[in-house]
Amino acid sequence: MSARLSETEAARLLADAEVVLVELEGCLLGPEGPAPGAAELLHLAGERLHVLSNNATHTAEELAGELDTMGLPVASQRLLLAGAAAVAHIAPRWPAGRVLPLATRSLCRLACALGLEIEARAPDAVLAACDLDLTHERLAQALAALEEGAALIAADADPWAWAGAGAGRKRPGTGALLAALSACVPEAEAVVMGLPEPTLIRHALARAGETEGRAVLVAQPGLARSRAARALGIPHLPVQPARLLVAAPQPALALPGLLAPRAA
C-alpha cells in the first residue's frame, strides 16, 4: 500500500465503487488456496465484481467450476482470463483465419468455436499460452511461422504459472515460452493480453459499461499495475482482501454485495 493511500482510504474507495475489478492470482487465490478474506470480498463486491486472471490454460467456464469447489463462487461471465482473451483477440482480426496454438486443448476448442482454423502451415497468428503438451516439433513450427511473418499473440508474460488453482506448485508459464521464441526470432514482438498490461482491465470496464471514475482495481502490488490502472483512470488498491475488509466502513459490511444507498 502506497504511503499516499491508507487502508481505510482504500476500503472507502472499494465501498463507493460501482465496478470492482479484482485480480485472482495473489489477491483472491494464493499458492495453497483461497486468500484470507477472499470469499468475503467476493460477497461484498456482489454484482459489481469482475475477476481478472492471467490464467492461460482454462476457459472461463472451466475455471469458474474449479473456483466454486474452493468456496470462491464467481460466474463465468465475471471472469476475464488472459488465455481466452488472446483467442478472442485473434478471431476478429483474422476471421476464419489460421492459428498455430501453443496452448491447451481447452483454448484450442475455444479457437475453433470462434471460427478459427487450427493449422501449423502458414498460420496468420501464433497463439502463445501455457502449453502443457509442448513438443520440440511444435516449437519449431511456431518459430518457422514467426520467421515467415505470423503475428505473435500471447496470453501473458509471466515466467511462472501455478500448476492449478491453489495447487501450491509452479510450472513454466507463458513468459518462459515467450523468452524461447524471442531468443530465436527477436524481431517477433508479442501482443500481450494479461496483467500488468491494461488490456484485461479495459475489457472488464467495457463489459461493465464503465469507462472511468467509479471503478477500482484490487490487484497485486507493483508499479506496472498501478500505471495500467492510472492510464484508464481508476485507482489501484494493492492490498490483501482481509486487510480491506477490516478497514471497510461498517455500512458496507452490513450490506454485503450491495452499495450503501447514496443521497439523490
What features would you describe in this structure?
With 264 residues, this protein is of the alpha/beta class. 39% of the residues lie in helices and 18% in strands. It has 2 domains: 7-54 and 196-254, HAD superfamily/HAD-like (Rossmann fold), CATH 3.40.50.1000; 83-192, Rossmann fold (3-Layer(aba) Sandwich). A hairpin with a 7-residue loop joins strand 10 (160-162) and strand 11 (170-172). Helix 1 packs across helix 10.
CATH superfamily of the largest domain: HAD superfamily/HAD-like
Terminal Cα separation, in Å?
Answer: 33 Å
The tally of domains stands at 2
Q: What low-confidence regions span 5 or more consecutive residues with pLDDT below 50?
A: 250-264
Oligomerization state: single chain
What is the second-level CATH architecture of the largest domain?
3-Layer(aba) Sandwich
- At the fold tier of CATH, the topology name of the largest domain is Rossmann fold
Strand content: 15-25%
The shape, in one word, is elongated
Overall pLDDT metric: 88
Give the % helix: 25-40%
Give the strand tally.
14
CATH class of the largest domain: Alpha Beta
Helix-and-strand structural type: alpha/beta
Spatial sequence of strands, sheet with the most strands: 5-4-1-13-14
Major β-sheet profile: 5 strands, parallel
- What's the number of helices? 11
Series of secondary-structure elements, N-terminal to C-terminal: HEEEHEHEHEHEEHEEEHEHEHEHH
Query: What is the C-alpha radius of gyration, as a whole number of Å?
Result: 19 Å
